[in-house]
Amino acid sequence: MAEIRLENIVKRYGNVVAVKDFNLVVDDQEFVVFLGPSGCGKTTTLRIIAGLEHPEEGNILIDGQRVNDLSPADRDIAFVFQFYALYPHLSVYDNIAFPLKAVKVEKSEIDYQVKRVAEILQITEFLSRKPGVLSGGEMQRVALGRAMVRQPKVYLLDEPMANLDAKLRIDTRAEIKRLQHEIGATTIFVTHDQVEAMSLADRIAVIHQGVLQQIGTPNEVYNKPKSLFVAGFMGSPTMNLLDVACTTNNGDLVLKLNHTDIQIDLSQQQQSILNGSESTSDFVLGIRPEHLTASMEEVGRKLPALVHLIEPLGAVNILDLRLGNHQDTNEPILLRVRTHPTFNVDIGDRIWLDFDEKQLHLFNKNTEQALW
Ligand code: ATP
Question: pTM to 2 decimals?
C-alpha cells in the first residue's frame, strides 16, 4: 500500500507544456480520479507516475521514496491502458495468470485468483480462448483482469472502460469500486466522463490545459467549484453561466443581468464577500439547472422566461429557455432548467423561474475564480 506524492511536475513536448507545475498527494488506499477534457494532460501525468515518461522538473515519491530514477518494473505499479496490450499467443487464462507466473506463485493459488477475477469480469467462458477472437470490450476486461490478479502498491487505470458497452461499464464500475475497497490499493483512474468520476472517486482531480484546477470530493467539486472551468465542466446539463454586473439598489449590492433589466438580490453575507473582493464590475453568475424551479405563475421573486426547446429524458425534462419577456431580442440569454415530466409546457410558453440564493455561484470574470 502506498502514498503517491507529485511535487512541481513539469512535462514538455517541444512547445507544448503537457503538465504544468503539478502538485498532488494521493493518500494510501485512496481512489483518485483524474478528470478533464481530451488533451488536458491526464495520461501524461499517469505515465509519469508509472515511469513511462520522464518529467523535465519535479519529484515523484511513492511512500516517501523518490522514484524518478526507478524503472517502471521497480515501482510495483499495475497499469491498465486505454488500449489493451494482450499476448496474442496465450489463452485468456494464461494472459491473466501471467503476472503471477512471473513471480512464481503456486499453481493452485494462480488458479483460484484467475477464476475469481474471471467471474467478477464475466469472462469465465472465454478463459480457454485466444485474445484474437474476442471483442474489444472482452479484451479490455481481460486486461483489467490481468491487473486485478496482482496485488501491487498502486493501480493506474487509463480509461479502462472505454471499450465497454453502457451496461457493462456500469457493472464493471461498481466492481472496480468494490474491489478497490476490498484490496485497499492506492488507485488513480483516468477518465473524461464526469459521471464515472463522480461515482468512483474518493477525490476528483479536475485538470485543464496541464493545470490541476481543483482536487476534492465529488461533492466538493460539484457543489463548490473553485473556478469557471470546473463549474462549466461538472454536471449534465452543465451549470447556467450568465454575465452580470454588480450595482447598487437602495444601498444594497445587487447583480444585474447584462442586456436585461433583471436584478438579483443578494444575502448580506454575499454582499460582504463582494464588498471585500478585488474591485471589478464584471462577474459570471452560475446556477445549476436543478436549482431553478419553474412555474406557470408569477409569484414572489421570479424571472420571466420563454420555452425554446423541450428535451424529455424520461425521469426529468430539460427545458431550454430564453430569459426575459420577448422572443425577438438580439442577444437572447439562454438557460436550462430541469423539470418534472408532469410540468406541462409547450414551445413558446411563458414561464417563471425562482431560485434559492444559497444555490448561486459567482465568479470573477477576469480571474475566472469563484467568490462563493
Ligand atoms: P485524452 O483524454 O485524449 O487521452 P489526455 O488528457 O490524456 O487526453 P495527454 O495524452 O496527456 O492528454 O496529452 C497532453 C498534451 O500533450 C496534448 O496536447 C498532447 O497532444 C501532448 N502530447 C502527449 N504525448 C505527446 C507526445 N508523445 N509527443 C508530443 N505531444 C504529446
Answer: 0.89
